[in-house]
Amino acid sequence: MRILGIDPSLRSTGLCLLIDKDVQMAFTIQTHDLRGMIRLGYIADTIKSFLACKPDIIVMEGYAMGVKGSRVFDIGEMGYAIKKVLYDSGIETWIVAPTSMKKFVTGKGTSNKRVVQDALLTDWDIHIEQEDESDACGLALFGYYTKHRREQRQLTENQRDALLSMELLNY
């Protein structure tokens, strides 16, 4: 099973493709010099090109609720641009709260990106160089274990609880 994890960000969107539990590819969409519609189009087009890897499921991180000010509009527009590409693809897409993914990977929903990266290495034996790619990998793992219920027996109770909190994008 191919699972694509997406950690959306205006500056550094992380992508990770798992085949079963094995990382096949991790990539970061860097947009530091881009703004406005050019940035949104670049993010959406790059994600669309990654759909050529034919994922069975896409797991995307939902909105962080602590964002304030005018950035909230930019993030909302980016979320729409990505979700539109995913919806149009017809690929089953799940939205997972950032705290749920972090709780699943690290045991604590408030962990920062570095803690997620470290937990992937120490607890899951997965080495990812870039922090946004690590979050994307955590999302893909979340999707793998949600789909493979029999394998959930090896998870902690905290991890199984975290798996209950995802939402489908394609209704």
Structural notes for this entry:
There is one protein chain. With 171 residues, the protein is of the alpha/beta class. The chain has a single domain, classed as Nucleotidyltransferase, domain 5 (2-Layer Sandwich), CATH 3.30.420. Helix content is 46%, strand content 21%. It is built from six helices and six strands; from the N terminus they run βββαβαβααααβ. It has helices at residues 36-50, 71-89, 98-106, 113-124, 131-147, 157-162; strands at 2-7, 12-19, 22-30, 57-61, 92-96, 166-168. A six-stranded mixed sheet has the order 3-2-1-4-5-6. Helix 1 runs parallel beside helix 2, helix 3 (98-106) packs across helix 5 (131-147) and helix 4 packs across helix 5. The chain is globular and about 45 Å long. The two termini are 21 Å apart. The model has no long low-confidence stretch (mean pLDDT 92).
Q: Tags for this entry?
A:
171 residues, alpha/beta, Nucleotidyltransferase, domain 5, 21% strand, globular
Quick description:
With 171 residues, the protein is an alpha/beta fold. The protein has helices at 36-50, 71-89, 98-106, 113-124, 131-147, 157-162, and strands at 2-7, 12-19, 22-30, 57-61, 92-96, 166-168.
What does the secondary structure layout of this molecule look like, with pairings?
Blueprint: E1 2-7, E2 12-19, E3 22-30, H1 36-50, E4 57-61, H2 71-89, E5 92-96, H3 98-106, H4 113-124, H5 131-147, H6 157-162, E6 166-168
Parallel strand pairs: 1-4, 4-5
Antiparallel strand pairs: 1-2, 2-3, 5-6
Helix pairs in contact: 1-2, 3-5, 4-5
